[in-house]
Amino acid sequence: MPSLSEETNGRVERLMPGATIGIIGGGQLGRMMALSARYMGFRIGVLDPTPDCPTAQVADFQVTAEYDDITAIRELAEKSDVLTYEFENVNADAIDEVRALAAAPQGTDLLRVTQDRVNEKQFINDHGTPTAPWKAVNSVEELDSALDEIHYPAVLKTRSGGYDGHGQTVLKSDADLEKVRARADRGGGFPPSILEGFVDFAFESSILVAGNGKDYVTFPIVRNEHRSNILHMTIAPAEVSEAVAKEAHELALRLAQGFELAGILAIELFVTKDERVIVNELAPRPHNSGHYTIEACSFDQFDAHIRGIAGWPLEQPELLKPAVMVNVLGQHVASTRALIAEHPEWSMHDYCKAEVRHDRKMGHITVLTNDTERTVADLERTGCWDDLKKI
Fold it and tell me: Does the global pTM surpass 0.90?
């Protein structure tokens, strides 16, 4: 591997242009990682079960196999200088097995923490950062006991897996608890889970932090709106007090330092009415709420991720202009494409997925603006997103 300089503890001192980055996962996040890496002079390989997946379309080669296929992961590692991933449900043991073949700058501790919601909450709390009240629960009996302490309303989540609301059950009353009990009695079982208390938040938010293993920088705190448990819109920056922005920045740095972070970490937040900042979840990768950075920042979240895993220096990113990002789901593809000619201010991103499906993320639109409130109203006025209910 002539392009790879000294490698220590899974990290590289400096990855030079011409080296190959292997990406596990071939969706839109991998695609945008690959595009950033291309500009920096890197070659790209991808492991994904779907031929000609979005990342493969901009990569040098694809290993077509399931994500947990250790033979395929080994093949990707043999052809790569470093490995990274675009989603957190990656087999950490498999990455450990091939670290003699390719560096894994992000390590696997980060994966193991973020793959398990109990481990994740404990890590966050251990680093001086608040979360919703929570309890690990492994049976209906333990759930009863946890509810005595946390009370309704609460959310029951599986310890692992799940995204965009999957693997989650909202418990508002004993009637909802009885549904969980009945499901377990019918043979549905009771998977290892976590019960989280509700947070009376003013709005949902997130912040991105990037690292190269020793130095760390943050992006602005942003405001997020979810509809039907899927991120609908991100407004950058969030209109928050200096104290809230400072707390979000500091907690992001604490967590990054705790992980000795290489690459991007997305931190989903609740901002309460009394201006407390509470961590909801972590994502050890670029994040949907960071897509606005492509147009709006001095360098974007994908640049920061690649620079971080390559061991390159990181500069504090600057927000060049406020922005609004809105997701294009399957049911929005036709209507947004029909309006392209009428909206020169739209930066359109199409993920080039082969199959258009309802509620599947097919792309996004970013608008740079001096008036985010007006831009949000303009986007909603198009009617493209009328199917999504506000909750």
Answer: yes
